[in-house]
Amino acid sequence: MPDPGRMTARLTLEQPQDTSDGQGGTIRNWQAVASLWALIEPQSVSRDERGGAEVATVNHSVTIRFRSDIRRGDRLVKGGRKLVVRALRDPDESRRFLLLDCEEEVQ
């Protein structure tokens, strides 16, 4: 079971808000929904080359208190870091904690 005392990272939960660009497309903006405490644990890193630049993708396991409003595609922000939620689960189905699998791209 996660230890709430280890949740020392202060994160902002952001959710995407798509609006029309007036030409048939959309513009994605991010709306801050909540500020929350979390435990961030790096799990793995992979490196790739995109457009001649090396990009590293870091996978993290993030533990937070249970919330029912988090979805895949939301993101957690800490300073300039952006962690995109790829999967989430309630580890013991008690609605006390959520474990989030997140990706962070580092250039």
Structure report:
The chain has strands at 9-20, 26-50, 53-65, 75-78, 81-89, 97-106. It has one domain (4-106): Bacteriophage SPP1 head-tail adaptor protein (Thrombin, subunit H, Beta Barrel), CATH 2.40.10.270. With 107 residues, the chain is mostly beta strands. The radius of gyration is 15 Å and the shape is globular. It has a 6-stranded antiparallel barrel.
Beta content comes to over 45%
Strand and helix order: EEEEEE
- Give the termini separation: 34 Å
Count of the separate structural domains: 1
CATH homologous superfamily, by name? Bacteriophage SPP1 head-tail adaptor protein
Order of neighbouring strands in the sheet with most strands: 1-2-3-6-5-4
Outline the low-pLDDT stretches: none
- Looking at the overall shape, the CATH architecture is Beta Barrel
Oligomeric description of these chains: single chain
Protein name: Head-tail adaptor protein
Biased composition (Polar residues): 14-26
Region (Disordered): 1-26
Organism: Allorhizobium taibaishanense
Task: Quickly list its features.
globular, Thrombin, subunit H, 107 residues, 0% helix, 6 strands, mainly beta, six-stranded antiparallel β-barrel
Write the layout of secondary structure elements.
Layout lengths: L8 E12 L5 E25 L2 E13 L9 E4 L2 E9 L7 E10 L1
Antiparallel strand pairs: 1-2, 1-4, 2-3, 3-6, 4-5, 5-6
Summary, kept brief:
It is built from no helices and six strands. By secondary structure, the chain is mainly β. A six-stranded antiparallel barrel has the order 1-2-3-6-5-4.
